[in-house]
Design the sequence.
């Protein structure tokens, strides 16, 4: 039994006001167990509380150290992109930012990155060079195994409680888990061994210091290998593709709206200038930048659909006229889509499908959002709200600032993507009002099917 909702009041009850009546549930947990074990993302009840309390301290400070990590990997990514642009080829921005966020996240979590950027950038699929291109398998091994494992885990959702029958002979996720563990296991074992040798952390009060990685922070509170393994992997999953998704669709929309790109660039040059590294305060002070990110999160929420399971009988009500109260019996699967909710004209106004960052700055805030804050839920809400929200805003802002310091125009090149990228009738669908020219797809998180191929103009070249 399942039901589907896009009602803000229902979602508010599921996530916040009736929090104890809903959980991820045994089906979701079993579907995700091969990949995520029992970490924070995949636990309920006391186990979830334990994991959340262990990870939370690490996110409670806006650590300056993140910016060093972002800067190194952003500069590496943008340097590679500029070199490729000079040769006249379009770049798959989605691929580039996925490597940027993977290298940043692994360094932030483990203190060591997977060097996915060192594999080099792919050429457009139909180009001669794409056929000749050889990638570095080791550098891509982790990324492709991680993608495969996520996709296979998400597919299990289609079969609900019967998913295990589909994988009666082989666990499809487990087969790729080895490539993921090949990277993680030596780092964890090394860190645990060093801790044991040095007796580091003894008498430690568990406080997080500026230099701590999530791994070193976890080692201060537990020696349990499985807990540390699952926790770091869960946070990698939660934090990596979500930020890559937002950066992908932000650039797509900036390419489609040169006026918005120009205004954003003016703010960046005004606050940070053309070369300086943005600081934490710079990022906080850029109101238009924040509005562009929020508008991207509204139209393209990285977690477009989510699920909970009722643990006891509950009645869901809604203020929306015509919505009758809904009885939800214990055991019912409740699917909710913030993607659809974020595009509803009755909640966001007649221009809901338009990309317009000003809706987060002008009178529309008072009209729509302030009286009904649950209409905007990219990070969820309630006790399980995203732990990495601030980290994500910092990382995404940092990359956009660094990019637009160097680039003054962006051209979307859908003709370069694989031929099958846009299905017939897609752009005329009522859900996009003819404004979406990329094919949105989703495994656990949303992505642009076929990639996001763009060309960019280097700022210095024209100024
Ligand atoms: C644009 C970026 C991001 C978006 C839109 C996002 C969104 C979300 C959403 C919707 C959830 C709730 C999932 C659920 O309960 O079913 C969540 C949970 C979580 N997120 Fe994020 N996230 C982002 C970035 C990050 C980053 C960068 C990190 C960490 C580095 C992170 C860490 C987490 C964790 C640990 C949870 C689990 C919280 C819990 O279950 O108690 N997220 N995120």
Sequence:
């Amino acid at each position: 039994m399942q039901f589907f909702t896009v009602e803000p009041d229902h979602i508010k009850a599921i996530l916040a006001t009736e929090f104890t009546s809903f959980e991820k549930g045994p089906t979701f947990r079993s579907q995700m167990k091969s990949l995520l074990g029992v970490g924070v993302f995949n636990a309920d009840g006391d186990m979830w509380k334990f994991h959340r309390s262990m990870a939370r301290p690490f996110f409670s400070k806006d650590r300056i150290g993140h910016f060093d990590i972002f800067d190194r990997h952003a500069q590496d990514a943008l340097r590679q992109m500029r070199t490729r642009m000079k040769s006249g080829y379009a770049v798959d921005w989605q691929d580039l930012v996925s490597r940027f966020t993977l290298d940043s996240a692994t360094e932030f979590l483990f203190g060591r990155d997977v060097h996915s950027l060192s594999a080099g950038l792919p050429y457009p699929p139909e180009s001669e060079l794409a056929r000749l291109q050889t990638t570095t398998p080791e550098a891509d091994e982790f990324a492709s195994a991680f993608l495969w494992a996520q996709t296979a885990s998400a597919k299990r959702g289609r079969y609900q409680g019967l998913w295990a029958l589909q994988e009666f002979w082989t666990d499809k996720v487990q087969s790729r888990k080895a490539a993921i563990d090949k990277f993680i296991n030596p780092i964890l074992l090394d860190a645990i061994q060093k801790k044991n040798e040095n007796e580091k952390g003894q008498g430690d009060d568990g406080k997080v210091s500026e230099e701590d990685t999530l791994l070193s922070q976890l080692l201060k509170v537990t020696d349990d290998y499985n807990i540390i393994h699952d926790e770091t992997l869960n946070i990698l999953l939660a934090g990596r593709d979500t930020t890559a998704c937002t950066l992908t669709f932000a650039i797509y929309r900036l390419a489609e709206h040169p006026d918005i790109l120009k205004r954003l660039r003016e703010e960046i040059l005004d606050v940070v200038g053309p070369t300086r590294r943005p600081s934490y305060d710079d990022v906080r002070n850029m109101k238009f930048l924040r509005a562009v990110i929020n508008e991207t999160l509204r139209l393209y929420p990285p977690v477009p659909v989510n699920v909970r399971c009722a643990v006891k009988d509950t009645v869901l009500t809604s203020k929306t006229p015509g919505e009758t109260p809904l009885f939800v019996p214990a055991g019912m699967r409740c699917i909710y889509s913030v993607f659809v909710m974020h595009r509803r004209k009755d909640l966001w106004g007649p221009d809901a499908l338009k990309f317009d960052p000003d809706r987060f700055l002008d009178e529309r805030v008072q009209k729509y959002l302030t009286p009904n804050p649950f209409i905007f839920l990219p990070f969820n809400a309630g006790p399980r709200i995203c732990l990495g929200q601030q980290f994500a805003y910092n990382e995404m802002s940092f990359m956009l600032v660094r990019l637009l310091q160097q680039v003054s125009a962006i051209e979307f090149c859908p003709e370069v993507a694989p031929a099958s990228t846009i299905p017939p009738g897609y752009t005329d669908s009522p859900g996009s009002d003819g404004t979406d020219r990329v094919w949105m797809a989703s495994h656990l998180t949303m992505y642009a099917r076929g990639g996001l191929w763009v060309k960019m103009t280097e700022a210095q070249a024209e100024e």
Summary: The chain has a mean pLDDT of 87. The first helix runs from residue 8 to 17. The pocket of protoporphyrin IX containing FE is lined by residues 40-41, 52, 55, 235, 238-239, 242-243, 246, 302-303, 306, 378-380, 384, 386-388, 391-392 (CB under 6 Å). The two ends are 61 Å apart (CA to CA).
